[in-house]
Amino acid sequence: MSPEIFKLLLQSTGQTLYMVAIAGLVGSLLGVPLGVFLATSGRGELYAAPVANKVLGAIVNATRSTPFIILVVAIIPFTRLVAGTSIGTSAAIVPLTVATVPFVARLVEAAIREVDPGLTEAARAMGATPLQIVTKVLLAEARPGITLALTLTVVSLIGYSAMVGAVGGGGLGDLGIRYGYQRFMPDVMAAVVIVLIVLVQAVQSAGDALARRFDKRSRPT
After folding, report:
1. What are 14-39's pLDDT values in tens digits?
2. What GO biological process terms does the UniProt entry carry, in alphabetical order (predicted)?
3. Residue 147's closest CA among 64, 205, 66?
4. CATH 1.10.3720.10 fits 3-215, yes or no
5. CB burial class (10 A; 0-12, 13-18, 19+) of residue 115?
6. Rounded to an integer, what distance in angstroms lies between the CA atom of residue 102 and that of residue 62?
């Protein structure tokens, strides 16, 4: 591999990390509260709002069921409105974030619903407010599940970031397509795949370790 290609590989890796970091951060900041609301706003729950729950749930399901590459194309006008362009690394963050929000929301909702309902009832009996139950009971007990959910989100974003390379999004996917595929340079394609595998492995290992640290069941007694 020539020094020029190696430099492009480093640059593309930086672009991928940038896209994943920003989309993951913004998507999580929006997706986690949405997931908490979906988990606590059903009929008879802490913040009972069944109509809003169904409407938001339908929107989340519709977004999640749309293949990512189609979503990227479908929201090009929105991407241009937000980023000023539909091409490039910064523009790619918009569809990545849009895809992340519902993904995180459903995973967080599932993690919270796995918390023992008896803990919620006990907190209610002790006079805890709904906000206290959410922050001190539900989120505290669901931390391992939420950590794994965010880990899965970042891993998925790494894959999605490679897909946006097909539509001029930059990053490792763009490098693999332009050089590895279009210019028939298998060494570049192999290097891109190896870097993606290393990134995924690093994120997954860190997420698993953090989840084990949060899991009270794994602590010695």
Report:
1. 999 999 999 999 999 999 999 999 99
2. D-methionine transmembrane transport
3. 205
4. yes
5. middle
6. 9
> What are the extents of the domains in the chain?
3-215
Find, among 171, 144, 149, the residue nearest to 101 by Cα.
149
Whole-number Å distance between alpha carbons of 89 and 76: 14
- The C-alpha atoms of residue 20 and residue 80 are separated, in whole angstroms, by 19
- Contact by Cβ (8 Å): 141, 122: no
User: Do 37 and 47 touch, CB atoms closer than 8 A?
Assistant: yes
Residue 33, SS3 per DSSP: helix
pLDDT per residue as tens digits for the range 33-80: 999 999 999 888 888 899 999 999 999 999 999 999 899 889 999 999
